[in-house]
């Protein structure tokens, strides 16, 4: 523990001038060549209108960014909200009669149905991102969206455990590319200093999905018996129909990469390209991606560590998402009231994640904004582990706010921090898919962490969540130290005038000697 605290203090307070990026809120004070990193430093444009970048004659940078935000963020947020809703609404359905009607109340059949989702979801992440680049985002993402909407409808029509297993498997097939694909696409539009609040706003759609799912399940639960269907079936059918309708509209609205969209003028396109090249190097959009490029990315030890950062948080995040209704119901609430009580913790997580994102972007710092929220989640799980009894349900319910606010605030920072430190299309595409794919192995662990025999206290589940939160903190420390080491090594190489050609630099991405990592 003392080593961990020492590392935290070292990274937070004693940041080396050879490795730190400019840490000023007034960007006009950061002049090219004045950085401690020398000429290799990647810094922001010194003015809002893009001085030292191609001029904008018909608009301003602020208006251009607003235009980009309007085209990208609403589409991706709604897409992922529906994807996450269709993934975790089984938790709401479980307490509305799914378990009893399909005879899943004994043993681990229900947990296995949750687990089967993650098999294709993990294995197909990287192929999905490769297809995203080949087919264009608006085509691939909207097709997948229609697919998982249709499967969700089918989930409401199953009559056996085998049918539920089949639909959950195909739900994983169609949802596999949603999260890494959206993050990859956003990463090709925004600078590192612009990304965190936008990534967190996008990721907060998961918390809105949790809140909206609880509210919707409350309403749909009232349809129990309509046309002979139980309320839990209507949860799947209605939410699946909503997704299918949106997928058709989203085929025409989803954005592609900056090099491909038609709603940018050539002047705006040139400006975006130049700004991103100045921040993270050239995009390498034209470089074709094969298995050799994939393997080259996966050999990078920093990429492996990035997977463990996310892996450690997935266990508590999915543990809560899937089992929160059952946990809340164990406090003595009815099925209907449980749906309502599931909403406030998700809403709190939405607000807290936006605050964390704003602070992280304002300070241009990531490490502390991963560790602090994870510690909040650990505190929440520790309370749930040690406090029991209906007389203490207010304290137990309050602990859920710490869990959601901590876990769901740290996750977007971790993913953004990692993705935006990867330069170029091929490294960012493969690296982000690896992080999400490997990380979601934790989802399998989460589904077996809260089993029926441990109710109502779920001590094994809470202890597992605490352990994996600690793993995530250790991985974050290791990743930050790796970035410090790489920046120092490259600063020394810059002093020794180590250079590469512009073609090599474009192909290398963040492995280029001129690239500097943010931590």
UniProtKB/TrEMBL annotation:
<feature type="transmembrane region" description="Helical">
    <location>
        <begin position="399"/>
        <end position="420"/>
    </location>
</feature>
<keyword id="KW-0813">Transport</keyword>
<dbReference type="GO" id="GO:0022857">
    <property type="term" value="F:transmembrane transporter activity"/>
</dbReference>
<dbReference type="InterPro" id="IPR036259">
    <property type="entry name" value="MFS_trans_sf"/>
</dbReference>
<keyword id="KW-0472">Membrane</keyword>
<keyword id="KW-0732">Signal</keyword>
<dbReference type="InterPro" id="IPR011701">
    <property type="entry name" value="MFS"/>
</dbReference>
<feature type="transmembrane region" description="Helical">
    <location>
        <begin position="343"/>
        <end position="360"/>
    </location>
</feature>
<dbReference type="InterPro" id="IPR020846">
    <property type="entry name" value="MFS_dom"/>
</dbReference>
<protein>
    <recommendedName>
        <fullName>Major facilitator superfamily (MFS) profile domain-containing protein</fullName>
    </recommendedName>
</protein>
<feature type="transmembrane region" description="Helical">
    <location>
        <begin position="110"/>
        <end position="132"/>
    </location>
</feature>
<feature type="transmembrane region" description="Helical">
    <location>
        <begin position="303"/>
        <end position="323"/>
    </location>
</feature>
<feature type="transmembrane region" description="Helical">
    <location>
        <begin position="139"/>
        <end position="163"/>
    </location>
</feature>
<dbReference type="Pfam" id="PF07690">
    <property type="entry name" value="MFS_1"/>
</dbReference>
<keyword id="KW-1133">Transmembrane helix</keyword>
<feature type="domain" description="Major facilitator superfamily (MFS) profile">
    <location>
        <begin position="72"/>
        <end position="490"/>
    </location>
</feature>
<feature type="transmembrane region" description="Helical">
    <location>
        <begin position="199"/>
        <end position="220"/>
    </location>
</feature>
<feature type="transmembrane region" description="Helical">
    <location>
        <begin position="232"/>
        <end position="254"/>
    </location>
</feature>
<feature type="transmembrane region" description="Helical">
    <location>
        <begin position="367"/>
        <end position="387"/>
    </location>
</feature>
<feature type="signal peptide">
    <location>
        <begin position="1"/>
        <end position="20"/>
    </location>
</feature>
<feature type="transmembrane region" description="Helical">
    <location>
        <begin position="432"/>
        <end position="451"/>
    </location>
</feature>
<keyword id="KW-0812">Transmembrane</keyword>
<dbReference type="GO" id="GO:0005886">
    <property type="term" value="C:plasma membrane"/>
</dbReference>
<feature type="transmembrane region" description="Helical">
    <location>
        <begin position="169"/>
        <end position="187"/>
    </location>
</feature>
<feature type="transmembrane region" description="Helical">
    <location>
        <begin position="457"/>
        <end position="482"/>
    </location>
</feature>
